[in-house]
UniProtKB/TrEMBL annotation:
Source organism per UniProt: Anaerovorax odorimutans
Superkingdom of this protein's organism: Bacteria
SMART domains: LysM
PROSITE patterns: LYSM
Annotated ranges, domain LysM: 51-101
Protein name as catalogued: LysM peptidoglycan-binding domain-containing protein
Pfam families tied to this protein: LysM
InterPro entries: LysM, LysM_dom_sf
Amino acid sequence: MRKQTGRKKYRIKSRMRFTVFIVLTLLITATAATTILGFNNADGMTKQEYIQVQVESGDTLWSIADQYMPADMDRRESVYIISQTNETSASELYPGQTLKIPVEV
């Protein structure tokens, strides 16, 4: 008489289905893990470079954007990008302040 261990024995009927199942399971698990850990965002793919500009008397965000940002970019967008990058506004600008201006790479 054979002794029963209480374990079920499983048999793979189709190697192809089993392989597809394992591959899909691994892909879904890897995708979920990278999403949860934050490796899936595109921000990490590009490295933004900046130039530093010192504000002089009479400078405004508009004049700085006009001088250093791309000519084909809307000035309002340029001013917004500069103010967001430096966490400042036009009213907080003062001579001697250093601003980071994003450069296209």
